[in-house]
Amino acid sequence: MTRIVAGTVGGRTLAVPAKGTRPTSDRVREAIFSRLEHLDVLSGTRVLDLYAGSGALGLEAASRGAAQVTLVDSARGAADVARRNVTTLGLGAVVRVVADTAERFAASLAATGPGGPGLDLVFLDPPYDLAEEELARVLSHLAAPGVLAGGAVVVVERSTRSPEPAWPSGLEPFARKDYGETAVFYAEPAAGPLA
């Protein structure tokens, strides 16, 4: 069972797609959000959750005070489940769901910008078998000028057997934490044009 760990809808359960996703465990989500609260990047922020699945990471951010959350998943079934979760939790004023590929959505942000100030927090929890080259392209789009706000945090979840993501020149990793089979990487905008 997947649930929201804390915040305004803490303890509520989430529906998950019947197949094709690997929801982040409550333990790993709790650890991620503990670090993000320590970094003070939750309250009033603009959040993007790529490869969202049920939307657990983005919905957790909304529950903990994010001002605007976009959940993106290419699987129609996953996007439908995420929409139901948004409605069930009453978070429709804060959260929107987009059925699109992470790469195409990130490329559109790189081309046009996020439509206002840059994103404060981005989650990428792709399938463990996603090609490293595709992940690198998505990260490169996110590193384009204007996509991320200064002080933004990018969180990438991978298998501990996967290599560290190939960080583009606009992003600098600052932490890695392993939880069993799950490796969580944290990065921030590189000093320079994005900062």
TrEMBL record:
Q: Which InterPro entries match?
A: DNA_methylase_N6_adenine_CS, RNA_MeTrfase_RsmD, SAM-dependent_MTases_sf
Taxonomically, the superkingdom here is: Bacteria
| UniProt keyword terms in alphabetical order | Methyltransferase, Transferase
Q: Pfam families given for it?
A: Cons_hypoth95 (PF03602)
E.C. numbers = 2.1.1.171
Cite the GO molecular-function annotations of the record. Answer: 16S rRNA (guanine(966)-N(2))-methyltransferase activity; nucleic acid binding
What CDD domains does the annotation carry? Answer: AdoMet_MTases
What is this protein called in UniProt? 16S rRNA (Guanine(966)-N(2))-methyltransferase RsmD
**Species name:** Antribacter soli
